[in-house]
Design brief:
Strand content: under 5%
Mean pLDDT: 76
Number of helices: 13
Largest sheet: none
Low-confidence stretches: 7-25, 237-244, 279-291
Structural class: mainly alpha
Protein name: Activity-regulated cytoskeleton-associated protein
Number of strands: 0
Helix content: 40-55%
Oligomer: single chain
Shape: elongated
Length: 303
């Protein structure tokens, strides 16, 4: 008789129910698992699933790298702050905060952007106070305390209204600095009032010449003042000749051509006889020999 006992499943046998659920079959755990590897359909399904997952992960990684490159290279703020008195710290903070909101910069990257916008004294200060996890409000408070405190504003106000133009300082530098301080410390001051305050602080000669002049704009004032000071500089040295060195007389003696003042000439009114030195010019003779000649004009006391 035939044995009706069902034959045991071989290691290579796969039931129909198993073939209808390929996604629930775990991947092979070793190279000896012939139950999975000997079934081409199941192996292909698992391989396709693995490849799709890897491609999706690679695509996401590529997208993140591209986003980081875009942030680092694409845009940076087009303004900066160095700590110069003419710069407005409040205006810098407003521009920086607006840029953060517009570009959606996360808080973790803000310190790096701040460092890129600071130069000179402000950059050195930030390197001292920058700490990991520096928050925006903390930076804002420390920044204003360093560059816009009450003491600093008091000094700048005194400089704005009381410091005159220094000799050698160009009109452009002086007027530009004053105008920037007005924008920072007294922005509500009318333009004509600003121009008059600046005019009063010009060099004395320039101030006298520009009295009563109505400037149309700050640029107009720069042009007029620069031209006046250029003319004054040319007039202070006639014919472009430098002044004589030392404290000696500016020209030779009119009586003997010597290098001394006219009042000290030994040939004047017989001084040469007492000095024991004859005059150097042949046009001079002793007093008794030139009685018939008209007396030389008496030099002015201003010579």
């Amino acid at each position: 008789t035939l044995d009706q006992t069902p034959a045991p499943h071989s290691s290579t046998h796969v039931s129909g129910a198993d073939r209808h659920e390929p996604s629930t079959i775990p991947p092979p755990t070793s190279t000896n698992d012939t139950t999975f590897t000997n079934d081409p359909a199941r192996a292909a399904i698992w391989q396709n699933t693995t490849n799709v997952a890897m491609l999706e992960a690679l695509a996401e990684l590529t997208r993140q790298v591209s986003a980081l490159r875009t942030i680092d290279v694409r845009e940076e703020p087009d303004f900066e702050f160095s700590g110069n008195p003419a710069e407005d710290p409040e205006e810098y903070l407003r521009a920086l905060e607006d840029w953060f909101h517009q570009k959606r910069i996360p808080a973790a990257r803000q310190p790096m952007i701040i460092r890129r916008t600071l130069t000179k004294e402000a950059y050195n200060w930030f390197e001292e106070v920058n700490t990991p996890g520096l928050e925006w409000e903390t930076f804002r408070r420390q920044f204003l305390a360093r560059f816009n405190s009450i003491a600093i504003r008091s000094v700048l106000l005194k400089q704005l209204y009381g410091q005159p133009q220094r000799p050698g300082e160009t009109a452009y530098v002086f007027i530009t600095a004053k105008w920037s301080l007005f924008k920072r410390l007294a922005p509500a001051t009318p333009d004509q009032e600003r121009l008059e305050i600046i005019r009063v602080l010009l060099l004395p000669q320039t101030r006298a010449i520009t009295r009563g002049t109505k400037f149309q704009s700050v640029q107009h004032m720069m042009e007029i003042v620069a031209e006046i000071q250029r003319d004054l500089a040319e007039g202070s040295s006639p014919r472009g000749n430098p002044p004589p060195p030392g404290n000696g007389p500016p020209s030779p003696c009119r009586f003997c051509q010597g290098r001394h003042y006219h009042r000290d000439c030994p040939a004047r009114q017989g001084n040469w006889e007492r000095a024991g030195t004859p005059p150097q010019s042949s046009s001079f003779r002793p007093r008794d020999e030139r009685r018939e000649q008209p007396s030389p004009p008496t030099p002015s006391r201003y010579q």
